[in-house]
Amino acid sequence: MFIFVVGLNHKSAPVEVREQLTFPESTIGESLTRLRSEKAIEGCIILSTCNRTEIYCATTDLEKGLASVRRFVTNSGPLVVDDFANHFYTHSIYDAIRHLFRVAAGLDSMVLGETQILGQVRRAYQLACEHGASNSVLNTWFQQAIAVGKRVRTETGIDQNPVSISYTAVELARQVFDSLGGKTALILGAGKMSELTLKHLCSNGVSTVIVANRSFDRAEALASQFGGRAISFSELENYIVEADIIISCTAATHYVVRKNMVENIMACRAERPLFLIDIAVPRDVEPSVGTVQGVHLFDVDDLQNVIDQNLAERRKAASQAEIIIEQEINKFLKWLNSLFVVPTIIALKSKGDDIKNKELDRAFAKLKNLSEKEQNAIGALASSLVNQILHDPITQIRQHAASPEGHLYSEILQNLFNLEVAGQRQKKNVEYSETRSQK
């Protein structure tokens, strides 16, 4: 059984190519069923996210399996594989194993070490199982990939250091307040960055959301997404008194929050700290606001410095993760190669016995006056010759069973001795090494 993956991602293809090959969850069942119906496909799993579309398959004939996937992709939308060949990558066996493990660990993501992809891998596997598209080899592969993703995050902490502006802002707020539960967040501006920041704030327990924007309608639209309320800029000073956290990202060309305003407000707050994140460029908050007692002010450069430090930490964690992945590859490869090696050894021994028994029958038919003792002696001699001839090939294939080339030794042996091994039919001279996209 051979495994491979065909796909494209944010590194190999721009969004205008990626968007032509997507599989929404509402259609994934039909797509899996259609691909699984291909004779060469023994099992399939489709991983489709905004940054990647990958088709994982198990097949008994690698060449036919790849052809089936190319046909499936061409019939799945306007994208034709041959027209966009430089955007697709194909990994088989060892390289496919390594690729999936790195994907699950977040090492192949746009944001190094991101957590969301692990859930997406798990969901892709669940959908394939629900629609009867997977098989035992893919089941074991994906189960181990999910375990690898968990192990990497647990042992390296690669996802513990935020590397986005909005998430970093919220993490800094958590450091100031310990917990964001019950806190009030005031958002100045109603753009995309404000929306992302609000998502992180609410997921961390912020209970009250207030949005101020020059356009009241936009403020109201954003506030309604999070069960908050919108205010006009003329009311801003009154609501800063209530806020624990202020995130500012407006398009103003002047300071929106000034030192004298904050000094007056802090005098009315009974020593409650105020946390301000100024993401705007040019800045919304007068820099001297940070000198007011009880105020914690960060601008976009402060956040970027934190992000740079966190990225450095994630890169260190990624180096540790690669070591873990290599360990896990060897474990899985040993199991996968046993699917090749053990049946090959059994088939080789069986063929040797068949030849031996056939030739003994022919010899005994000619030597009719042999005693039982003489027949046994000749039989023992024949068995010894066969065993000695096969000893070295069997020893070598066992020694290489756990190596990346283990399956190749099996196939060479099958071809040399013309062995028939169920589930391992493979044409000669097929290239098994990784085919990389030409970028």
From TrEMBL:
SUPFAM superfamilies: Glutamyl tRNA-reductase catalytic, N-terminal domain, Glutamyl tRNA-reductase dimerization domain, NAD(P)-binding Rossmann-fold domains. GO terms for molecular function: glutamyl-tRNA reductase activity; NADP binding. Residues 320-419 form the Tetrapyrrole biosynthesis glutamyl-tRNA reductase dimerisation domain. NADP(+) binds at G189, A190, G191, K192, M193, S194. It catalyses: (S)-4-amino-5-oxopentanoate + tRNA(Glu) + NADP(+) = L-glutamyl-tRNA(Glu) + NADPH + H(+). Pathway: Porphyrin-containing compound metabolism; protoporphyrin-IX biosynthesis; 5-aminolevulinate from L-glutamyl-tRNA(Glu): step 1/2. GO terms for biological process: protoporphyrinogen IX biosynthetic process from glutamate. Substrate binds at T49, C50, N51, R52, S109, E114, T115, Q116, Q120. It is an enzyme of class 1 (oxidoreductase). Its EC number is 1.2.1.70. Keywords: NADP, Oxidoreductase, Porphyrin biosynthesis. InterPro entries: 4pyrrol_synth_GluRdtase, 4pyrrol_synth_GluRdtase_dimer, 4pyrrol_synth_GluRdtase_N, GluRdtase_CS, GluRdtase_dimer_dom_sf, GluRdtase_N_sf, NAD(P)-bd_dom_sf, Shikm_DH/Glu-tRNA_Rdtase. Residues 6-156 form the Glutamyl-tRNA reductase N-terminal domain. Pfam families: GlutR_dimer, GlutR_N, Shikimate_DH. Residues 171-306 form the Quinate/shikimate 5-dehydrogenase/glutamyl-tRNA reductase domain. Catalyzes the NADPH-dependent reduction of glutamyl-tRNA(Glu) to glutamate 1-semialdehyde (GSA). HAMAP family: Glu_tRNA_reductase (MF_00087). Possesses an unusual extended V-shaped dimeric structure with each monomer consisting of three distinct domains arranged along a curved 'spinal' alpha-helix. The N-terminal catalytic domain specifically recognizes the glutamate moiety of the substrate. The second domain is the NADPH-binding domain, and the third C-terminal domain is responsible for dimerization. This is Glutamyl-tRNA reductase.
